Amino acid sequence: MKSTFKIDEKRKIITEILNSGITMNEYIKLKHDEFHHEKFNRNYNLITDFRNFDSSFNKNDLQDILNVFNENKGKVNREKSALVVSNVKYFKKVQLKTDKNSETPQEIKIFTNFEDAEKWILK
Predict the structure, then answer these.
(1) CA 67 → CA 7, 61, 62, 90, 110, distances in Å?
(2) Residue predicted with more confidence, 79 or 37
(3) The pTM is what?
(4) Among 53, 74, 79, 109, whose Cα sits 20 to 30 Å from the Cα of 103?
């Protein structure tokens, strides 16, 4: 299954679903396609779903994708971004990275299930 994004205009949410094996270049292309989509809105909040990563996904790949994620924070006006991770190992790596990037006014939270992330985004 390929990594994708969905734009929900009604709820003002962009959801990215990142699958195992996605490379940094594929993620950059996904972000490019997202930013140029006709429904894209810089004010929509974001949920990035990392739950489909498998145990072969390594720390450097995750770091590369998070670097692209962080670089794009300045290109949007959203208030919230939620990262959803099911594997505790990834949760700790993602948590460390977001803690170090507190210069953005955008609030970023980590969740272990999609439903809680969605509830927080919609508050």
Answers:
(1) 22, 10, 9, 15, 16
(2) 37
(3) 0.84
(4) 53
